[in-house]
Write a structure and sequence with these properties.
This protein has 123 residues and is mainly α. The chain has one domain: Cytochrome Bc1 Complex, Chain D, domain 2 (Orthogonal Bundle), CATH 1.10.760. The protein has six helices and two strands. It has a two-stranded antiparallel ribbon. The protein is globular and about 35 Å long. The two termini are 20 Å apart. It binds heme C (HEC). Heme C binds next to helix 3 and helix 5.
Length: 123
């Protein structure tokens, strides 16, 4: 299934990179080695289950927290072991409307990963 925003993200990238990027591919390339192919965590010690993010944040998927964790903005001591994805976020910027309705310029890779992980909730 292709959700609309993800589809637009792929279209926007089509002229810039060799192969279109999807959230699932990004996850597989950059995250699965630690968080597991099914996002349930534990592929390396201490990597949390990413399918329970919504459950653990009052039933609401914490989009801003997730994006900030990936790009490093939200890193405190608690996020020490996870790499900061500088290369990953060096993709074209699109406007992403955050959960409060604020349009925010955001790297496409983060938008796609976020959509992918939103779809993985329910664990
Ligand atoms: C080298 C292993 C490693 C890789 C690769 C990795 N992570 Fe992590 N991640 C961790 C660890 C360990 C933690 C928990 C400790 C911490 O917060 O650093 C974590 C924490 C997180 C959290 C916070 C989870 C929570 O329950 O609060 C999110 C969200 C997350 N990672 C997403 C990702 C995404 C998305 C990717 C791919 C772009 C990724 N991680 C790649 C090891 C990794």
């Amino acid at each position: 299934m292709i959700r609309r925003a993800g589809f637009l993200g792929v279209l926007a990238l089509a002229g810039c990179v060799d192969a279109p990027m999807t959230g699932a591919q990004l996850y597989g390339d950059y995250c699965a080695s630690c968080h597991g192919p099914d996002a349930r965590g534990g592929a390396v010690a201490g990597a949390p289950d990413l399918t329970t993010l919504a459950k653990r944040h009052g039933g609401r998927y914490p989009a801003v927290y997730v994006m900030s964790t990936i790009d490093g903005y939200a890193r405190a001591e608690t996020h020490g072991p996870m790499p900061i994805f500088g290369d990953l976020i060096d993709t074209p910027v699109e406007t992403w409307v955050d959960p409060d309705g604020t349009p925010t310029p955001t790297p496409v890779s983060l938008i796609l990963l976020n959509e992918y992980l939103t779809g993985q909730q329910g664990g």
